[in-house]
Design goal:
Elements lengths: L8 E5 L4 H12 L3 E6 L2 H13 L5 E4 L5 H15 L4 E4 L15 H29 L2 E6 L12 H21 L4 E8 L16 H6 L3 H12 L9 E4 L5
Parallel strand pairs: 1-2, 1-4, 2-3, 4-5, 5-6, 6-7
The protein binds NADP nicotinamide-adenine-dinucleotide phosphate.
């Protein structure tokens, strides 16, 4: 039977738009105690205002996930305001229009690895000690189908998304004896602001076939509701046409 997320403390990083925002809305509406974080504070405030008007509570904190000290502060502040973090959802990510090897530069490569991969490590290390002490925790990462299959998303994006799978799987093997689970969700195309970073924008026809962010949020919630005896280490979700 599904475990309720009511009153569970959930930290969502990358919650100002797209998949992270939809996930924050879904968990808050389901009664979880959500801390929503990203850099754009005005977007987080808009999300908070919307949920408050629906009678749901949600805390927000602006933070840059590529800064390890900001992730430490985010974890500490979440614990102070809401209690022990039970679930982490990592939905931070970006891509670059200069993704082709012929255009990629060292600074773009570094930014891509920082935002898509290193930030996941920074927030993971910030939340793990308290999860270990409580012998309970669920780390849910949004990677991409590009982490599993070769496609046109670019070398830096694919390397980072594959790296995220490595981070999650290694963490699970080491931490399962401490009651900690990990899940990596690998979506195909979702209609979010990320698609604006493509060198060629998807057509209206292509967008009609894409998934919506709430489709991925539904998966995150389903994984979070599994009883502690069950884990989904990795899952793919894609538009039906793929
Ligand atoms: N859309 C797709 O087709 C698709 C498919 C597969 C996987 N994904 C993955 O899904 C995840 C979410 O993407 P999305 O599609 O929902 O795109 P999105 O709407 O652009 O959301 C990206 C989120 O990441 C946050 N972010 C970016 N840099 C950050 C930083 N340095 N610190 C903190 N937060 C940061 C953004 O917030 P701020 O800018 O406010 O910081 C935003 O909340 C990404 O990892 C993406 O690669 C997307």
């Amino acid at each position: 039977m599904a475990v309720s997320v009511k009153d569970k403390v959930v930290l969502i990083v990358g919650a100002s738009s797209g998949i992270g925002l939809s996930t924050a809305e879904l968990f808050a509406r389901d009664g979880a105690k959500v801390m929503a974080s990203a850099r754009r504070e005005e977007r987080l405030l808009k999300l908070q205002t919307k949920l408050t008007s629906e009678g749901c509570a949600l805390e927000i904190m602006a933070a840059d996930a590529t800064k390890p000290d900001e992730m430490e502060r985010l974890a500490a502040e979440t614990e102070k305001q809401l209690g022990r973090i039970e679930i982490l959802v990592f939905a931070t990510g970006t891509n670059t229009p200069d993704r082709a090897m012929s255009r990629l530069k060292v600074d773009i490569w570094d930014m891509m690895i920082n935002v898509n991969l290193s930030s996941a490590y920074y927030v993971t290390r910030a939340v793990l000690p308290a999860m270990r002490a409580a012998r309970d925790g669920h780390l849910i990462y949004i990677s991409s189908i590009s982490g599993l299959l070769a496609d046109a998303s670019g070398a830096s994006y694919q390397a980072a998304k594959r790296g995220l799978l490595g981070l999650a799987h290694a963490t699970r093997l080491e931490e399962k004896e401490n009651g900690i689970r990990t899940c990596v969700i690998c979506p195909g195309m979702v209609d979010t602001e990320l698609l604006e970073k493509r060198p060629v924008k998807p057509t209206a026809e292509a967008l009609k076939l894409a998934m919506q962010p709430e489709d991925i949020a539904d998966m995150v919630l389903a994984v979070a509701k599994l009883p502690p005896r069950a884990v989904v280490p990795e899952m793919q979700i894609m538009p039906t046409y793929m």
